[in-house]
Automatic annotation (TrEMBL):
InterPro entries: GlmU-like, NTP_transferase_dom, Nucleotide-diphossugar_trans. This is Mannose-1-phosphate guanylyltransferase. The keyword Nucleotidyltransferase applies. PANTHER family: N-ACETYLMURAMATE ALPHA-1-PHOSPHATE URIDYLYLTRANSFERASE (PTHR43584:SF8), NUCLEOTIDYL TRANSFERASE (PTHR43584). Residues 8-230 form the Nucleotidyl transferase domain. One of its GO terms (molecular function) is nucleotidyltransferase activity. Keywords: Nucleotidyltransferase, Transferase.
Length: 238
């Protein structure tokens, strides 16, 4: 059931510790992959899905992000300033009043999402059903995650219901950092620093979490080595 989702958020407030020394003077979302910043690439995905109102949370070197996006005028971009990074859940909670509608997208700012046969975020909108879902996660097979070498995050059953890896050594799917969240899942949540994992866990417990498997490429660009892999990927496409 497609829903008219017009708001989205890009998480851009992290310290970029694992990307040092590149992030000593440049915030990670402004690091370029094949000539375009990772934050702009995330906003490009939102725009093509019909999102007209985007929010970026900023903290570390946030003035650089603010200056950069003053020059982008093709969509309405607002900034949510954090005195210190609030992690994923706290960051979205602080920006909640800027996110319109009953549901919205959230994308990590340190990955590059490439479309499959259908634009990925449109595919997610078409799958979203507010009657059954509070959370929709975009997963991909761990073996297909470019620049990622971790143990995986989720299992997934044939009803599109995800579950955390928990004690298992590995899981077949990695979370892309791309999601749709129902606005009301933040009701009565605390202010301050906390993780969106709490939202996912609650939705899984209530049977209101679903996941889609990404049918395109996805590049994790959280380290200098990951950036090198991503540059090589795009060089081969040229």
């Amino acid at each position: 059931m497609s829903e008219h989702i017009t708001s989205g958020m890009v998480l851009a407030a992290g310290l970029g510790t694992r990307m040092r020394p590149l992030t000593l003077h440049t915030p990670k979302p402004l690091i370029k992959v094949a000539g375009r910043t990772m934050a702009d690439r995330a906003l490009d995905r939102l725009k093509e899905a019909g999102v007209t109102h985007a929010v970026l949370n900023i903290s570390y070197l946030g003035e650089q992000i603010a200056a950069h996006f003053k020059n982008r005028t093709d969509m309405n971009i607002q900034l949510s300033n954090e005195d210190e990074p609030l992690e994923t859940g706290g960051g979205v909670q602080k920006a909640l009043s800027l996110l319109k509608g009953t549901a919205f997208f959230v994308l990590n700012g340190d990955a590059v999402l490439l479309n499959g046969p259908t634009p990925t975020l449109r595919r997610m909108k078409d799958f979203w059903n507010a009657a059954d879902m509070d959370v929709l996660l975009l997963l991909l097979p761990s073996a297909k995650a470019i620049g990622y070498s971790g143990p995986g995050d989720f299992t997934l059953d044939n009803r599109s219901i995800p579950a955390f890896r928990e004690e298992c050594k590995t899981a077949p799917y990695v979370f892309s950092g791309v999601q749709i969240l129902a606005h009301n899942t933040f009701d009565n949540r605390p202010r301050g620093k906390w993780s969106l994992r709490e939202i996912y866990q609650d939705a899984i417990t209530k049977g209101r979490a679903r996941a889609l498997v990404h049918d395109g490429d996805w590049l994790h660009v959280g380290t200098p080595e990951g950036l090198e892999v991503a540059e090589d990927y795009f060089a081969k496409l040229a």
